[in-house]
Every structure is written in C-alpha cells, then in structure tokens.
Design brief:
113 residues; four-stranded antiparallel sheet; globular; three-stranded antiparallel sheet; mainly beta
C-alpha cells in the first residue's frame, strides 16, 4: 500500500523549478494579464517605488514599462476581465507608511515587442 510519505515523495520528484531573473526590486505586487506577468510597485532599502515592470519570457528579462500614480510596495494586484488592473493597499514607506488606497488602471500594449 502507498503511504502519505510515499505520495509526497513522488510529487516532489515530479516538481521542476527554474530560477528566473530577480525582480528589479522586492515586495512587488504580481499579476498575470493572461498574456503578461506584471510587477507593480516595489520596495528596496526603505524606499518604495512606483515602477511597473513586465516580464519577457523570450529574453528572460524584466522591462520597466510605466509608473503607478503613487509609490507603493507589498500591495495586492488583480487582473480584471475588463483588461484593467486593480491595485489594493500596501505600503508607501516614503511618506505615510501603510495605505488602504485602491486604484484601477489600464495599461496599453505599446510596450509589446
């Protein structure tokens, strides 16, 4: 008979992970638009950033494509069916600490190759 440990060991053997390039900064909110992986906002050495980066699998690189309306990090991002992105809360460590702000925005595909 198969035990839980045997099943877990079998699952681990089937799992394959590949290390990708680092995010430009830490604590970015990630969302998948169905076509692109986006990193929104970030934090590095006590500074929050407003940058939006897209990951290009073909070049295995992150590319800055836009800025958010304000700096933030450790937020939550959700891609909506309308094509818009909702960015919720997080930290603005440059000014106020944590925020409960909610933004909805849309990126246009001019950054596409």
């Amino acid at each position: 008979s198969t035990t839980a440990c045997d099943q877990q060991s079998s699952a681990q053997q089937q799992s394959v992970w590949t290390l990708l390039p680092d995010l430009p900064y830490m604590h970015a909110a990630l969302t998948n638009t169905g076509e692109d992986l986006l990193a929104l906002g970030s934090f590095l050495y006590d500074i929050s950033y407003s940058e939006i980066h897209v990951y290009h699998p073909s070049t295995k690189s992150w590319v800055k494509i836009a800025n958010l309306p304000q700096v933030c990090s450790a937020s939550t991002a959700v891609s909506l069916p309308s094509g818009e992105i909702m960015l919720i809360g997080g930290g603005n460590f440059n000014l106020t600490g944590y925020t409960r702000d909610v933004y909805i925005g849309k990126l246009y595909k001019k950054y596409k190759k």
